[in-house]
Design goal:
79% helix; 408 residues; 0% strand; Growth Hormone, Chain: A; globular
Length: 408
């Protein structure tokens, strides 16, 4: 693989990974406008975000086996076309119920990109490079929260929220063309795999029984759910409680994202001196301490806008270290079942994220306490899972282990 091919493949995989986050972040500043146009409330509009998370989680389980059975690209084509159609449907939605349903379909389409990109990292690059590649993908993904809400705020103010979905459809068309012409098929279809429910379930159970997968996949998923809580709760906190307009909210959202994306890149430097497992453990400890301080300050009314931003920034910085390393450690033991393992990892992340995003919206509170409490709880639970799960791992496959990996 030449340097040019290496660059373009990571770039395309990054855009595939970022399609879902762009679909989440870009329409957030339009919540009040959507509520006004569809004659509903901001909390009900937030249900379209929860339905998107549900669709992402369910779609992971659908595409995982398909990617192993038919290769990576054909299922990816299906998902991207479905996403484009649903995005145009969202643009034309005339009721909140229609928008919620179409967002569900849009998510099912976009998660093909998410699952395929993770599996293709495992296909294209040596296991010892996986954590570094995931960090590079985070650089592209980081453009989503830095650019999408800011651009979405200006587009909504100038042209209406409907144009946001038209732009998302156009982005998906460009990604589809890039996949067709620039990305190779990275996995030979395995015709021995059955798509019947019984064998698929058995394959998923086989992946779950791997202690290293279950430990790091669920540690990463629970920690990452705090980000979903932040995304779902931030419009309410910043625009309703602190009375910021959509444009300023977009800039704050972009600024906070620098913590996540910046630390995901510093992670590459940290991996020269420390193992991935060590980085995850230390970052989680820091995240737990800051989370507990965040909820304590929120309950006592000590936080204004600046204090809230600072604690969220610290949380996202820690997550930048946790996410890439947890993902790489989860997939390290797998070769044959990388698609199914990727799907399970994504499904657990999104299912838990959907729950936390719904939980934030369920609290009818005009304070930042629900957001702080859920973010703190996600950190504490993730640390408990890591500490307990590490005891069950007998022969951990390190992502820096050049000798190879266990074959399942």
């Amino acid at each position: 693989m030449t340097k040019k091919e290496h660059f373009f493949r990571i770039l395309i995989l990054g855009f595939l990974t970022a399609l879902g986050p762009f679909s989440i972040d870009m329409y957030l500043p339009g919540f009040p406008a959507i509520a006004n146009d569809l004659h509903t409330t901001v909390n009900e509009v937030a249900l379209s975000l929860s339905s998107f998370f549900v669709g992402l989680a369910a779609g992971q389980l659908l595409y995982g086996p398909m990617l192993d059975r038919f290769g990576r690209k054909n299922p990816l084509y299906i998902g991207l076309v479905l996403y484009i159609i649903a995005s145009l449907g969202c643009m034309a939605a005339h009721s909140i119920q229609a928008l919620i349903l179409l967002r569900l379909v849009q998510a099912i389409g976009s998660c093909a990109a998410a699952v395929a990109s993770v599996a293709m990292v495992r296909d294209l690059f040596p296991v010892e490079e996986n954590a570094k590649v995931f960090s590079l993908l985070m650089l592209v993904v980081g453009a989503s929260p830095m650019i999408a809400p800011t651009v979405g705020g200006y587009i909504t103010a100038a042209y209406g929220w409907q144009l946001v979905f038209a732009i998302l459809a156009a982005i998906a068309v460009l990604i589809l063309l890039a996949v067709i012409f620039k990305l190779p098929e990275t996995y030979k279809p395995d015709t021995s795999l059955s798509l019947k429910p019984g064998p698929i379930l058995g394959n998923f159970l086989k992946v779950l029984k791997e202690p290293q997968f279950s430990t790091y996949a669920f540690t990463g998923a629970v920690a990452f759910s705090g980000l979903f809580a932040y995304v779902a709760g931030s419009p309410l906190v910043f625009m309703d409680i602190f009375h910021l307009d959509g444009k300023i909210y977009g800039w704050i959202f972009a600024g906070l994202s620098i913590g996540f994306i910046g630390c995901s890149q510093v992670n590459n430097l940290a991996m020269r001196f420390y193992k991935s497992e060590q980085i995850v453990r230390v970052a989680l400890f820091i995240q737990v301490i800051s989370g507990l301080l965040f909820v304590t300050a929120a309950v006592n009314g000590w936080l204004g806008l600046v204090g809230t931003v600072v604690f969220i920034f610290i949380f996202l910085c820690c997550l930048g270290f946790i996410n890439s390393n947890a993902a790489a450690l989860s997939l390290a033991p797998f070769s044959k079942n990388a698609g199914s393992a990727s799907a399970l990892m994504g499904c657990s992340q999104l299912a838990i994220g959907a729950f936390t995003s719904f939980a934030v919206g369920a609290f009818d509170s005009h304070t930042n306490i629900p957001l702080a409490a859920i973010m703190a709880a996600s950190s504490v639970i993730a640390l408990v899972i890591l500490l307990i799960g590490r005891r069950q791992i007998k022969n951990q496959v390190e992502v820096s282990d050049e000798a190879g990996m266990a074959m399942h």
